[in-house]
Amino acid sequence: MSTFLVVAEQKEGAFRQVTFEAVAAAKQAAGGAEITAVVLGRADQADELFSYGADNVLHVNDNQLDHYTPEGWSQALLQVIEQVNPDGIVLGHTAIGRDISPKLASRLKSGLVSDVVSIEDGPVFTRPIYSGKAFEKVTIDDGLVFFTIRPNNIASLEKQEGASGSVEEVSVTITDLQTVIKEVVKNTTSGVDLSEASVIVAGGRGMKNEENFTILDELASVLNGAVGASRGACDAEYCDYALQIGQTGKVVTPDLYIAVGISGAIQHVAGMSNSKVIVAINKDPEAEIFQIADYGIVGDLFEIVPKLTEEFRKAAVTS
Known about the structure:
Layout: E1 3-7, E2 10-11, E3 14-15, H1 17-30, E4 34-40, H2 48-51, E5 56-60, H3 70-84, E6 88-92, H4 95-108, E7 113-116, E8 118-120, E9 124-129, E10 134-138, E11 145-149, E12 167-170, E13 199-203, H5 214-222, E14 226-229, H6 231-235, E15 256-260, H7 266-269, E16 277-282, E17 295-298, H8 301-318
Parallel strand pairs: 1-4, 1-6, 4-5, 5-12, 6-11, 7-11, 13-14, 13-15, 15-16, 16-17
Antiparallel strand pairs: 2-3, 8-9, 9-10
């Protein structure tokens, strides 16, 4: 029986949403093949993968894989791939996926379709090019079907409560690691994962200083969203570069993107233009961001954002 291999990603012991989306993407592309998920390192919730559509779950139980390193994960996955001999491999187009997928493709002498946002029968993969200004459709005529998916674009399957299966332990040999993770120091940013958030409130240079970002935190909290930023805001040290959205930062596609005090430079637009609904708040009616916004509010963001926060808070209480 043919199979597609999904590489699961975890964050603090829980699977990232993109892992469940990758299982759904694998089913779309697999043409009836079984879906096998592989978990590297700790596997506290491995059974959950069955609830989201995985037919089989493999667990590589090695504490050297608890934290991602290119060497360790590459060695482990190549050995798993040799054992499973899959027809396809799917990863999230995350920091890990972007890093390791080209390495695996090179070692496997395989093609790679990266940053897939939709899949049609065939399979036909759609991916953005030219910083999101255009899209191309890609098919794989021969060999391994190897692709990564952009988070928050391909919906996961509905969770099937009670679905279960047997998690199979797989042995690999990890040798000669040049990098060893001894301690993980968490970044000061917290809350909803920016790359997977359905709502993002992003600030630009118009925020004026670091302290003013607190009003964005409050709005994002009410909307159960994440806070992002333009490169200009990061360069001005208003916030950490981990929040940067744009061509040289994170590429996001939330259901709602609220751009606050952001002019709309092309580098920033490249990272968020595919958001489903864009709301722009800027005091300059000629700001470029209004050209791509679905809704625009011209005015003082320091008056508008607190009022929006209060109205959303009232709506949340009455709903």
